[in-house]
Task: structure prediction
Amino acid sequence: MNEQTQTDEQTKAKAGAMIVPVTLFEQNCTIIWCEATKKAVVIDPGGDVPKILDAIKQTGVTVEKIWITHGHIDHVGGAAELRDALGVKIEGPHIADKHLLDNVVSSGARFGMTGVRNFGPDRWLDEGETVTVGNLSFDIYHCPGHSPGSIVFFSNELRFAHVGDVLFAGSVGRTDLPGGSHAELISSITTKLLPLGDDIGFVCGHGAGSSFGQERMTNPFLTGEIEG
Result:
């Protein structure tokens, strides 16, 4: 193998991703897969399960898990249905969001979402734990503030994070819902996420992704221009 081929092999993408916007909330249901094994995970199946299943078929990957960043209805509305359709296990969020997963049906009713079900994950996730899909490994960071049990999935190897609704491009998660705390959210972002590095790219729960460096420099909630 010559040097150029080796370099090409090393830079070949280790992971792939597809974002599937679901429900009226336009929530970023995300399919992430390991290129080497074609094993995949679905993060935050908020609803529109047939649409998610079509996307999985398009990618040609095999989903082996569902990961949940937090318990709000727009992120979990389709979780039980997708779990049953695929026969896979659910991991996450942190147990502090148990009350939200116990009340998916009543939350859905407030937004006219029918066919949703209360559920519990097969594994609650906590800071310092690791989850895997194929050959990829993600560290768990517990980042309360938007919800008590919000977690972030971070891959040091990929220099990539899925942050749910903790952080957005130009904004942060809302904190006016029960269990929310703006001070706690900003602390989660500044003490846990930003120190991981400016180069970290992220996908969030709604809208376009960004990088931690871009947000550290320009996000008005982090530069102090807007206070909660």
User: Anything to note?
Assistant: The CA atoms of residues 70 and 105 lie 16 Å apart. The chain has one domain: 3-223.
